[in-house]
Each structure stands twice: as structure tokens, then as C-alpha cells.
Amino acid sequence: MSVEAPARACGIDFGTSNSTAGWLRPDQPPLLVLEDGKITLPSVIFFNADENTVSVGRAGLNEYLEGYEGRLMRALKSLLGSSLMEGQTEVQGRPLPYKELLAQFIAELKRRAEVAADRSFDQAVFGRPVFFVDDDTAADRKAEATLDAIARASGFREVSFQYEPIAAAYHYERQIDREELVLIADIGGGTSDFSLIRLSPQRARVADRRDDLLANGGVHIGGTNFDRQLSLAGVMPLLGYRSKLKRGLEMPSNCYMNLATWHTINQAYTRQTWADLQQLYLVSQAPEAMDRLLKLISERAGHWLAVQVEEAKIALSAGDNATLHLDRLAPDLRHTLTRIEFEQASAQLVEQIGTTLSNLLTMADVRSEAVDTVFFTGGASGVPILRERIAALLPQARRMEGDLFGSIGTGLAVEAQRRFG
């Protein structure tokens, strides 16, 4: 990717699971190295209580998994558009507003980009999902405004936004030599977004691309939702989920829902939750499973378990089974998950995403056979059952895969140069 002079601005892909920073300059790759020689920075903050330090990315996750006491926060982007965004959490004995938490991470992302580029960035184009919030325009606008304010609080003087699938389209456009009608399928950590757009080398030279964009659509379902469903279906029953109490009632599900959802795991550690579980233990018909749950809670090992589930999801996208090593909950405890279990747990999510895509084609008044290419990006786009569903809707389109974690950041860097020079 060759440009004549370094761009003035950068592109920031603040992702649910991973984040990147892109900057166009002559004869260099567009994505900047952010951690350990890698272009991705996991969207993680760990407040280390033992060392009284704060770490981000892989370093923070590794400290947590090594057993340091502290508070791990992940899937930070999922807070945008949620009721939690106006609240706060307790970290190292003090209240920390969630807005400040996100600002801390984005400021560190900016700092690392500037170190890698050996220059400062005052201007940036941020990616955003087609919908932060489904079916609520006012809440969606508020979520973007919140991210804008957070980005400015992090040190950016000028901030603009581009839909993430559009950014991926601009990345793909640099690879083609003829006009194509392309469906960009961006299945990220928190959202599934689609854009139907006409691309070509000639169109790439035009500043205003509004006429090329036929339709946008999206739904608030992504990789973390697949993690959640796999956890609830395949792992939480080991901890007593859907087990029976002595009077025949089902075990309350709130704690399990929190443990299966990345950005609510810490809510399972409250004093009230612990007190409730102690009472439920006395009337449980599954004391062995409750022992595991209480051990998980007492050790604050929810994120450790979530990492295991996420790794199993990734393994089941490539193979037929995955074994979880759960010795931390009980001696020699192993549990094998199968591809079939994963697909059954994911079926409703896949159908919702398929419906979103079908509605997009209808809205654009485009027949499926008119689509030349499906361009996949986003870490969760590798889920086989999801790809099969999209292929069934567009059977004649060829399927292309971009850098699953870098296409959006690259496209945002292209857009940053286009907007700011």
C-alpha cells in the first residue's frame, strides 16, 4: 500500500475484543505495532491489587491468569449504549466511572500508536458499528456522542466516525482491478454489521462515496455472544446452572448469566451474590456443582473460565471437539465440548444474523445473484455455521477473507488520510 507522504491522522479501531491503530505512510504497512510485535491490542485493562499497577492488553490478561489479585475488565466497548455507561465500578478501593475506564484504555491505545509512529496524533477516524444499540436511534446517537467525548478526553482534538464495514470495504477495494458489488460481512466481538457497496479502482478516487453505498445493516450480536451461549449450554451446567432445588424449583440464573457475559462477570462477585449462593447451597440438589460455583466465585476466576470458553469456541471453529481443563474448580476435572453442541447453542444467534442480512438485501432491492463477492472480516466471521448461513443467502457470490483483525483498522487509516490529508 503506497502513499506519497505520511497522513496527518490515524484510524482507530476500538474493538470489543481487540483494538488497532492505522496510519498511512510511504512504503510501510498501515497498521502500527502495539504490543509484543503485534498489531492488535486486546481491549483489556487489569488493575493489579498486589502490585498497585494498571496493565492493558495481553500483559494485563496474563497477569490476571497468573493469579495476581485485582480487577480485570474486558469487552469494554460493550458498555457503550448500555445502562452501565452512566455508572461506575469499584477499583482498588475507589469508585471509577465507566467513562473514565474507557478513556484510560483509549489514551493508552493512542500513546502506543504515537510511540510506534514516532509522532503525535491529534486527529483520528474511529470505527463504529452500524448500530451501537438495536432499534433505538436516540440511544445509538448517544453512544456515538459518548465515544466522541471519551476520545477527546483521551487526547484527540478532532474526531470523526466511519462505519466499520465501510472501512473494511475501503481496505478490500485496494485489492481489486474491476468493479464489484460487494457485501462486507463484519462479524466482530460485539456486533454483526453488513454493508452492500459498489467498489472499483475508479470509484476509489472519488471523495464522496454516498452513491456507492446501497445499504447498511447490523445487529448487536458478535463473538462474545457466541461465547456466552456456548458457556451457558456447555459449561455453566457443571456449576449448577438449570439444576434443581429441593422443592423442585430451578436454580436462579442471574449469577450464571453474569459469569457467561464478559462485561458483567465482576457483578457475580458482590457480597449479596455470595450470601444468596450460601443460602441456595443448603437447598440445592446438585451440591457438587455448587461446590465448583462457590470455588469459582471465591477465587474470582470468572474471567479465567471465560478465556477457556473463548478458546474452546475458536477450537470448535476449526475442529470437532475441544477439551476444557478445569482443575482449578475440582481435581482432574476435564470437560469436552463438541462442534454439534456449539452449533446447537449458536443456532438462534446465527438465525438472527441471517435475518438481518436478508432484510438488508430486501431494503436495498438487490437480488442475491447480483452480489459478486462476500468479504469477511472480524474475528467471529470464522464461525463455520455462520459462514454457511451467509453462503446459503448468497450462493453465487465468491467468498473472500480479509485480515480478520486488521481490515477495519486499515480501512480507517485510508479514511483518515482522505478526511484529514
Which percent range describes the beta-strand content? 15-25%
Q: Please name the fourth-level CATH homologous superfamily of the domain at 10-178 and 402-420.
A: ATPase, nucleotide binding domain
CATH fold name of the domain at 10-178 and 402-420: Nucleotidyltransferase, domain 5
Largest sheet geometry? 5 strands, mixed
Strand order of the largest sheet: 3-2-1-9-10
Strands, count = 17
CATH class of the domain at 10-178 and 402-420: Alpha Beta
- Class per helix and strand makeup: alpha/beta
**Elements, N to C (H/E):** EEEEEHEEEHEHEHEEEHHHHHEEHEHEH
Instruction: Indicate the radius of gyration in whole angstroms.
Output: 22 Å
Low-confidence spans: pLDDT under 50, at least 5 residues? none
Cα(first) to Cα(last) distance is 16 Å
Mean pLDDT: 92
Net shape: globular
Short structural description:
With 421 residues, the protein is an alpha/beta fold. The protein is built from twelve helices and 17 strands.
What does this protein look like?
The strands form five sheets. Strands 3-2-1-9-10 form a five-stranded mixed sheet. The chain is 39% helix and 21% strand. It has twelve helices and 17 strands. It is of the alpha/beta class and 421 residues long. The chain is globular. Helix 2 packs across helix 3 and helix 7 runs antiparallel to helix 8 (287-298). It has a domain at 10-178 and 402-420: Nucleotidyltransferase, domain 5.
